[in-house]
Amino acid sequence: MSLHDDRKEYQFDQLDDGAKSLNPMVLFKEWLESYRQTGAADATAFALSTVGEDGLPDARIVLLKDVMDGALVFYTHYTSKKGRDLAHRPKAHALFFWREMERQIRISGSVIKVSEEKSDAYFHSRPPGSQRGAMASNQSEAISSRAEMETKFQALSEVPDEALHRPAGWGGYALQIERIEFWQGRPSRMHDRIAFTLKDHRWDAQRLEP
Predict the structure, then answer these.
(1) What is the set of domains in the chain, with CATH numbers?
(2) Contact at 8 Å (CB) between 59 and 71?
(3) How far apart are CA 83 and CA 4, in angstroms?
(4) CB within 10 Å: which end of the chain, N or C, has fewer?
(5) Residues with catalytic annotation?
(6) What residues pair up with 73 in beta bridges, in sequence order?
(7) How many CB atoms lie within 10 A of CB 53?
(8) Please, what is the end-to-end C-alpha distance for the chain in angstroms?
(9) Containing H/E element for 46?
(10) Any alpha helices (H) in 5-164, and if so which ranges?
(11) Distances from the Cα of 200 to the Cαs of 32, 112, 143, 204, 207, in angstroms?
């Protein structure tokens, strides 16, 4: 099998130098909304990368649930692998890849937990099945079989929807954006890359070579 000839020309759009004067948070929301409007499945999905105590990077797909105060908000179990990584080193990287628009966005920064009130509010906005799933799972822990998982989940079916509660070990994180790079595919691999870095509460913008 040869992969050498798997290639395409990128020509959907461009990112000119005027973008350097924009507020990157406004541009991020514009790009995100444009992608959502395509109808693509899981348009808010991104790859979240963390570093564990062993020094090895780890990545997984999570869903963006809010953009607030210059931060990306997502939810998970605090005792999951990603939660343990963030407890050890509260830094992360987010990668959005929007194939249909030939765009990538790379984001890095510090991570903090959101308030319990915000985590409670989001938890109770989820479908009851998703609430039960969070309550039943010890995310990232080994389990003997699928049947054992199902038994744990079914045990919660007897709990009325109104009695469901957010587990203490489940909640939200906010990835505070300290650097954000916009990538727009262009013909002949002469891609547009503009990076913004937060310095003294101001955004410093640079065009990067492809």
Answers:
(1) 17-124+169-207 (2.30.110.10)
(2) no
(3) 38
(4) N
(5) 189
(6) 66, 174
(7) 10
(8) 28
(9) strand 45-51
(10) 24-36, 81-88, 116-125, 128-136, 146-155
(11) 26, 20, 47, 10, 20
Residue 7's pLDDT is 78
Partners of 57 in beta bridges = 51
Task: Name the residue with tokens 């020509």.
Answer: 11
- Compute the distance between CA of residue 57 and CA of residue 51 in angstroms, rounded to an integer: 4
Which of 172, 190, 173, 191 lies closest to 182, judged by CA? Answer: 191
Q: Which residue has the tokens 């109808």?
A: 39
Crossing angle of the two packed helices 116-125 and 128-136, in degrees rounded to 10 = 120
- pLDDT tens-digit series, residues 80-97: 999 999 999 999 999 999
Neighbours of 96 (CB within 10 A): 22
Q: Is the pTM of this model over 0.90?
A: yes
